[in-house]
Every structure is written in C-alpha cells, then in structure tokens.
Amino acid sequence: MAPRRSQPAVVGRGLGGQLRELRVRRRLSLREVAAELDWPPSRLSRLEHGRQHVRVEDATALLVIYRVTGEEREALLGQVERVTEPRWWEAAAGLSDESRTLIHLEAEATTIIGCEPLLVPGLLQTPDYTRAVMESCGVRKVDTPPRIAARLARQAILTRETPPALHALIDEAALRRPVGGNQVMAEQLRHLVTVSARPNITLRVVPLAAGAHTGLDGAFALLDFPRNRSVVYLDHKISGLFLEERHQVEFFRREAVRLAEAALSPLASVNFIARVASEHERK
C-alpha cells in the first residue's frame, strides 16, 4: 500500500531529517560521519531517512560531531525522548500505522490547519462525542475506551507550554448533526466555545448559506514544522495518506485559504456555535 511505504520517511523526517540538515550544515559527508562513529554508512542513512529509530545515545553522539550545544542540543534530545517514550494508549488502542504517524507529527507541528465538512475535528472532540462517532462507525465496544483515551491524549498538545496554532475550519453541517443526541452535541459545541478562548486556537465556521464549497470532497489536515517540509494528511476508514510534495501541499494550502474566505470570522463563528448549541439544548 503506497501510504504505508511512504510513512517511515514522513514520521522519521522530524528527527532524521534534522540530523541530516545538521550534517550538511557542517559540510560533512555521510561516510565521514559514519567512519567517525565506526558505523556502516547504511546505518546513518537509515537514521536520516526515517527507516530506523533514532536512539538517545545515537543522537548524542551525532550532536557531538556536529558541535551542537546549548538550547538547540537540549531541544533535539528532548524531541528524541518524546518520540521514543512509551505511549500505552497508542498500543492499547490498536491504532493504524497512519494514525500513529499522525500523532507524532501533531506533536512536532507548529501549525495545524484542519478542514472538516462532516465532523468536529478530533483534536477538539469531547469523550461522549468521540464515543458516539466510534459506535456509529462500527468500532467494537472493547476497542472504544482505549481509542477514546488515545484521542484525548492527542489533545494534550494544545495545552502544553508551547502549543501548536490550530486553525479549524468546520462546516455548519457538522455543528447541526446531532451526533450522540442533542445533549451530547450541545456539550460538544459548548466545549468548542470554551477552547476558542485559547490564543492558539482559531475556529471558523463555513455556513450552509455559502452553498457548495471546496471542502465538500473530504477532510484534510495541513501540518507545518519549524524546519521540515509541511505535510498534508488525508484520512479514510481503513487507511490514511500523507502528502509532502511541494505542489501537493501548496494545493491544499490554497484550498484552506478558499475555505477561510467562505467562512465566518472567528468572532462570528464562536457566536454562531453558541447559538447552535442553544438550539440543541432546546430540542
């Protein structure tokens, strides 16, 4: 499957790609560095291309050769530790390889643009809403609790000390569909109103009055990183696809701009969400 073959390069790029950039910055060849560490060149190549996990001891040795010190060294080693630390909820949830990759990419992103024509974005879902979505999509009851835990764990990136900026474009239809019933939906929308007060979260509603728009053919997420190339993620029932070619990413960036032009302003969007929440509460 094409998405699965390309996945290691995408997820490994966050670490291996940065290490490669440091090597190139020092004007060292792959063979020179490998010889310094008494490694076969193929090992360093695998690390740089995301085909082998970067261990803390590997990164430490490389950073010595690349003369990386101070805050930059600590940041890179911290990134290695975050990627290699055990995540019980990932294993317990039985997540697909694509979902695991997305989790790692979200954790390293500085900006996430999410466009959702049908559902509230996963990073902003309440547990009851998530449960209703999973049950309606046929997830087995035994798998539902760990998957809910995994989704909630993903949301932790939005409240950390240096969170990514999240720009969520949501179709009005996603707000009006009573997923889990009107009470669950009202609570979900009230949650959106609450989180919209955070400086790193921007919500934009594309109203039904906008008619047909470019987001109707599917959800997508566009992730930007401090050093690496941006990535677009397309999700489906049993698979996911990562796009990282420049022309592909720029296509979806333009699509996000077009959607934003059709959407309400952030303030009008939050007020609109609050009104729809009240409508659900009255039903």
Automatic annotation (TrEMBL):
PROSITE patterns: HTH_CROC1 (PS50943). Residues 19-73 form the HTH cro/C1-type domain. One of its GO terms (molecular function) is DNA binding. InterPro entries: Cro/C1-type_HTH (IPR001387), DUF5753 (IPR043917), Lambda_DNA-bd_dom_sf (IPR010982). Pfam families: DUF5753 (PF19054), HTH_31 (PF13560). It comes from the Bacteria. This is Helix-turn-helix protein. It comes from Micromonospora pisi. The lineage of its organism: Bacteria, Bacillati, Actinomycetota, Actinomycetes, Micromonosporales.
